[in-house]
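As a warm-up, study this chain.
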Amino acid sequence: MKALARIVAEADGRGGTRLSTLYGEAPLLPRQTGPGEVHLVGGAAGPLGGDELFLEVRVGHGARLTLRTVAASLALPGSGRSVTRVTAAVDGHLDWWPEPTIAVRGCDHVIDSHVELGPEATLSWREELVWGRHREEGGDLLIRTTVRRAGQTLFRHDLALGPSAPGWNGPAVLGGARTTGTLLAVGPTAATVAAARQGDGAAVATMPLGPGLALTTATAPAAHLLRAALTTA
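Now compare it with the structure written out below.
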């Protein structure tokens, strides 16, 4: 299956945001759920092995968009590798806060995200991954995220989980945890002081990557603990 969703948010001239484009094909169905807020609704199971899903996002100058999903995404096995590609062009502000992606046993899934920021754009980009369902071994999941501004790369992060990724469950990656996530903040309020902490089974670290740019990473034994750690950050 191939599917495309397209979301365009623009300033409405009154200090708010209007959604000029909301287009989707199952399983990527965008629905407006509030002022400047969109949830993606899964109109079919997936991604299944062999699927190619494309999400295009545009946030104009002066607009603010919060993009969520109504439920976790189950990456399922099938015929070949499945791919989700996200491209975002942001001149205003984007909150990318989907529910976790769960790597089901036998899956082979790639999430490839590219974000282009305008000169004054700001960003909050959260990603949460769960290896396997409850009491289940997980599959292969590769996530690649690139954020650029004015032709320069601000952030590039690749993470591979699962049996095909050497060392994925060692102390440098999951260290025996079932979930991992990141929260990237781009803007003047981004943290400037490095910090690390442990608690409730979660390990969390925040580090500045440059002026107005900070990354929080976390691992935890369960998805609700991971969410709490990233929310606190």
